[in-house]
Amino acid sequence: MKYLDEYRDAAAAEKLRKAIHRITTREWTLMEVCGGQTHSIVKYGIDELLPKNITLVHGPGCPVCVTPLELIDKAIMIASGPKAIFCSFGDMLRVPGSEKDLLMVKANGGDVRIVYSPLDAVKIARDNPQKEIVFFAVGFETTAPANAMAVHQAKQLGLRNFSILVSHVLVPPAIEAVLSSPLNRVQAFLAAGHVCTVMGYKEYEPIARKYNVPIVVTGFEPVDILQGIYMCVKQLEEGRAEVENQYARSVRKEGNLPAQQLVSQVFRVVPRKWRGVGEIAESGLGLTPEYEEFDAEKRFAVAAYTAEEPAECISGLVLQGIKKPNECPAFATRCTPERPFGATMVSTEGACAAYYRYRRHAARQQSA
Ligand code: SF4
User: Fold this and answer.
1) The dihedral of CA 159, 165, 170, 171: what is its sign?
2) What pLDDT shows up at residue 194?
3) Of 32, 37, 40, 26, which Cα lies nearest the Cα of 216?
4) Which residues are CB-neighbours of 197 under 8 A, at least 6 positions away?
């Protein structure tokens, strides 16, 4: 399959592996930002192909994982209402709230529906004028255009029974938060290719300059990731700190301008809480005043609710690249995908779930 097979080609991967070994002379720590990249790295054992002096740490780029506990609780409160039809992508249904998850609400008779597009939720609103339809708008810059389109369409249609529960987060402020932490050990980033397909990569240039870090926009297949690592290490070894684009088959520097225009019409930049990390200034999206009638937090009066995250879960440290999942005492014992403590064990893009799926036996042997 074009654009897939050649990026899973063993000979191409081996060539890059050798090239990385050839140019590496010192210890370097790299972070892959996106959970999809983490999944590929662990699945294909890419980290195990690298020289011993290159460490990969896993970043905060899994939107399900960083959705704060209190927002899951708010979703559960709204979905439990008798008039609500709560629509969400499937991966949010098993994310644990303080006491239960959305799947339990559904099992108890709540009308919780999995949709494949926010526009499906708009259609449900049109077909059910007597109900309140809420869409769980979770994600990074990648999903923001489709969610903005749904709200825009609902406004055009004059729908009064449609709203969204917004949990949109932005990648560049998260990278800055990692770099500004006193515990930071990351020296270069593999930026998430799909986010840059929408946003381009101009925003990364001031970050690369300010913190003197290479940032390479990278895809998700094994050859993409090995090439992104090669480009990062080459910059580090040569003392450069630039933004480069490995994912040129999908990403242009300016990104998708019509999508950006729609997003900036419907959403504005706001502070957002990240699960396990806390609030990061200007790190998320909220509705603009023109569209705030579609804000589910206001419509259902849940905006003021807060919740404490369980102390035992160290997913915040995992999401900042400070700890690896198998360093968590609860990993694969008290915390499993069947009984997850934190969202990084629930989401298929979560680092803990990836380690559980592909590495748990090795992790157990190590600890034994
Ligand atoms: S293994 Fe479970 S408890 Fe530990 S950090 Fe991951 S999600 Fe949290």
Assistant:
1) negative
2) 95
3) 32
4) 142, 247, 250, 251, 255, 256
Tokens of 9: 């080609």
Amino acid at 64: V
Nearest CA to ligand 1 atom 1: 331
> Is-contact 66 319, C-beta < 8 A?
yes
List, in order, residues 6 or more apart from 238 with CB less than 8 Å away. none
Which of 318, 360, 364 should be mutated for ligand 1, with most atoms under 8 A from CB?
Answer: 318
Using CB distances shorter than 6 Å, the residues near ligand 1 are: 312-315, 318, 325, 328, 330-331, 335, 340-342, 344-345, 352
Residue 333 CA to ligand 1 center (angstroms) comes to: 10
Q: Is 280 helix (H, G, I), strand (E, B) or coil?
A: strand
Q: What's this model's pTM, rounded to 2 decimal places?
A: 0.91
| Average confidence (pLDDT) over 3-27 | 95
Backbone angles phi, psi at 136, to 5 degrees: -85, 100
- pLDDT number for residue 62: 87
CA of 13 to the centre of ligand 1 (A): 31
